[in-house]
Amino acid sequence: MEHVALHIAGMSCDHCVRAVRQALLALPGVQAAAVSIGEATVDYDPARVSLDELKAAVRDAGYDPA
Q1: Sheet holding 64-65, edge to edge
Q2: What confidence category does residue 66 fall into, taking pLDDT thresholds of 50, 70 and 90?
Q3: Number of domains composing the chain
Q4: Domain range for 60
Q5: Of 5, 18, 33, 48, which is least packed with CB atoms within 10 Å of its CB?
Q6: In this structure, what DSSP letter does residue 27 have?
């Protein structure tokens, strides 16, 4: 299991937090995602999902992972 912290630009409200959290948790291999405005910490299985896929999910939700 890996643990990563992502800085996320463009988030400004609870809706943003929910959207990012749901996008991350929908990925196979993501065990946990703690999201607050501007950041997320994710526990994931790198054999099932990559860091690039985590970032793509955030982008698909409409936000910019740094």
Answers
A1: 30-36, 39-44, 2-9, 64-65
A2: confident
A3: 1
A4: 2-65
A5: 5
A6: S
CA 50 to chain centroid, in Å, comes to: 11
Q: State whether residue 61 is helix, strand or coil.
A: coil
**What is the CATH classification number for the domain harbouring 21?**
3.30.70.100
Say if CB 42 and CB 32 are below 8 A apart: yes
Taking only the tens place, the pLDDT of each residue in 1-30 is 999 999 999 999 999 999 999 999 999 999
For residue 16, give the H/E element and its range.
Answer: helix 14-25
The residue type at 64: D
The one-character DSSP state at 13 is S
Q: What is the DSSP letter of 14?
A: H
